[in-house]
Structure prediction request, 170 residues.
Amino acid sequence: NYNAKSLTNAAYAMLDNKFGQKFRLSWGVRAEQYNVNLQTATSQTEEVNQNQLDILPSANLTFAVTEKTNLRASLSRTLARPEFRELAPFGFYDFTTQLFTEGNPNLKIATINNYDFRYEVYPGKGQMFSFSYFIKDFTNPIEMQKKLNRSVSYENAKSARNSGIELEFR
Prediction:
């Protein structure tokens, strides 16, 4: 049992620039100030209090190959914050997994650098086809780690990468 609250204050600025008839650059930055406070209901000494400022840039460059075809490259930085139960400085029994799960008050926020390369075709009104290749580079990703017998906790790994392709059509 715990009491927790979080607050995020954010500001965002964006610019959209055209370079000739073929290039468009949309870019910006988001600043987020995040505070989380978590106290167990049984003890005031077991408290998590984290305050962090993050700067999250993004950019999207589009090249219009034809009136109906684009090549697009984008990059951005995003976050994955720990949930309250992942930060909670105590354990609980998870009836779904049938494991004893312990929180970790020392978890860090994971940062993710996102890269996306896309080919887009717009054959008719309301129609679209795109093929994308993406990469996500994680720093401090949060992972569940097996501890003792039938017990798990959350830890930050050093890094991780996720990549793949996407097909989209309408």
Observations:
- The mean pLDDT is 92.
